[in-house]
Amino acid sequence: MCGILAVLGVGDVSLAKRSRIIELSRRLRHRGPDWSGIHSYEDCYLAHQRLAIVDPTSGDQPLYNEDKTVVVTVNGEIYNHEELKAKLTSHKFQTGSDCEVIAHLYEEYGEEFVDMLDGMFSFVLLDTRDKSFIAARDAIGICPLYMGWGLDGSVWFSSEMKALSDDCERFISFPPGHLYSSKTGGLRRWYNPPWFSECIPSAPYDPLLIRESFEKAVIKRLMTDVPFGVLLSGGLDSSLVASVVSRHLAETKVARQWGNKLHTFCIGLKGSPDLKAAKEVADYLGTVHHELHFTVQEGIDALEEVIYHVETYDVTTIRASTPMFLMSRKIKSLGVKMVLSGEGSDEIFGGYLYFHKAPNKKEFHEETCRKIKALHLYDCLRANKSTSAWGLEARVPFLDKNFINVAMDMDPECKMIRRDLGRIEKWVLRNAFDDEKPYLPKHILYRQKEQFSDGVGYSWIDGLKDHANEHVSDSMMMNASFVYPENTPTTKEAYYYRTVFEKFYPKNAARLTVPGGPSVACSTAKAVEWDAAWSKLLDPSGRAALGVHDAAYEDTAEKAHVLSVDPVAENVFCPAHGENLVPAAAV
């Protein structure tokens, strides 16, 4: 992950303005500690903080076309850049960067090229010939991007809110799958897959197609010139990622550079369930496994840093981001700069335990669509910012565009949890890898879903609640709706996170970037309607799925010990990446 900052039409070409933009860009240096660059043209500035993953020696940004009339600053990876370059035979490339192709595609096709990109990205491109510019974000929102407006008429774009919040009167989270064009002055959606309309698909279940498309998604993400690893929690999703990498690593360029022994990483409280499961998977796959531990106090001590970097006050996101943040620091200290992670599977396949209560395939499918559309607010935000806080890049093969299309084109009846038929959550995915040459041990392949914040150890959440209780009084909660009228915190834990967030990001525009709403076990607000009892148990923990989770809450007092979560916030610590999340933070 890199950090980008673009300020366009600022109406000021002074040295002081340039110095100010460089200063703000440095707030993103944690994302890109390897190099800094800035390009200015009249009153437009494009700045970049680079994390060098592909072509570390010559791929510094901003990047240009041949005569430098087109300038682009990019955060992300373009996995099909070689294929795209082959179509641009009349163009001369200056670097080996996968992102340089964006400047040449624009030159060749104009603004209508974004759907040609296969990867994760956010970018801003300036055409100096007419001073027009475009900005775009990848289909699902894996790479963060914010857009803001200054009182001087300037338009701002930044990888993180912290680089523009002080200088913009208003700012928003740039919507995924969209493009902004200065020529039209508005946003338009470039990503229009069939599932986006939420119409019920009818394609039959094809386990071989599922397996092959996922393997391709994993293999293309091994594009790197630096050491990498896999986050392995011991849950299904991260374990499948690790298994596929293990099978194909020897065939790749990175194996020739750095060896064909896969490194895996997990984190958890000592004795947590994920640590045990992750080690078992690592032993089965023969990886070099790194088991990392943290204490509840260490997690609590990191909360303010986590909230500053992740830029949210969402409870589940913060719960799950903290162990991932701690783990990322240790991974980076070992010389690793890129990791693969398992986010997205639960959204696509209905893996959260509350999907057991889906009344029919129509509502099941619509809920998966809602959750995928909201990933950029929760799991993607957590996975990206928790890792990039330490200059580590996370790649997520389950969110591959083609794989999503394959999985979401399937008749949702196949995804429905049917205990009478022996089908647990994500059965279609598990069955696709239940091969004669096993990808994973059976009991891991069919292990129940666990949410990251749960899997990392139940005492982690209890410790957070106890800490919040010490800092937030009953009288503070009584007045919460007056102090925080938008997204009013309903628990002391939520109130505590909100106070920390407001210290760093006090503007109303900042608090509006965080969504809100009721949730049970990571559900969206709409899915809470599936069970009347859920309206009284708005808890993001998987244990709130009464009668489903093996360790479900058992007594009334425990049921009342809940916190409200954003519909989708679930992803953050939820099973989505959750199972992985857990101790292994694999996600």
Topology:
Layout: E1 3-8, H1 15-25, E2 35-41, E3 44-50, E4 63-64, E5 70-78, H2 81-87, H3 101-109, E6 119-127, E7 132-137, E8 146-149, E9 155-158, E10 170-173, E11 178-181, E12 186-189, H4 207-220, E13 228-231, H5 236-248, H6 253-258, E14 263-268, H7 273-285, E15 288-293, H8 296-301, H9 303-310, H10 315-333, E16 338-340, H11 345-349, H12 361-373, H13 379-388, E17 393-395, H14 401-408, H15 427-432, H16 442-445, H17 452-455, H18 458-471, H19 474-478, H20 480-483, H21 492-504, H22 508-511, H23 556-560, H24 570-573, H25 575-581
Parallel strand pairs: 13-14, 13-16, 14-15, 16-17
Antiparallel strand pairs: 1-3, 1-9, 2-3, 4-5, 5-6, 6-7, 7-11, 8-9, 8-10, 11-12
Structural descriptors:
587 residues; alpha+beta; 17 strands; disordered C terminus
How would you sum up this structure, described in words?
- The chain is an alpha+beta fold and 587 residues long.
- The chain has 25 helices and 17 strands.
- Helix 5 (236-248) crosses helix 25 (575-581), helix 10 runs parallel beside helix 13 (379-388) and helix 18 (458-471) crosses helix 21.
- The longest helix is centred in the middle third of the chain and has 19 residues, at 315-333.
- The two termini are 18 Å apart.
Write a short abstract of this structure.
Helices cover 36% and strands 15% of the residues.
Q: Strand content of the residues, in percent? A: 5-15%
Assign a percent range to the helix content: 25-40%
Stretches with pLDDT under 50, minimum 5 residues: 552-587
Spatial separation of the terminal alpha carbons: 18 Å
Class by SSE composition: alpha+beta
User: What is the count of β-strands?
Assistant: 17
What average pLDDT do the residues reach? 90
Counting H and I runs of at least 4 residues, what is the number of helices? 25
General form: globular
Output the strand order for the largest sheet.
2-3-1-9-8-10
Radius of gyration, whole Å: 23 Å
Largest sheet: 6 strands, antiparallel
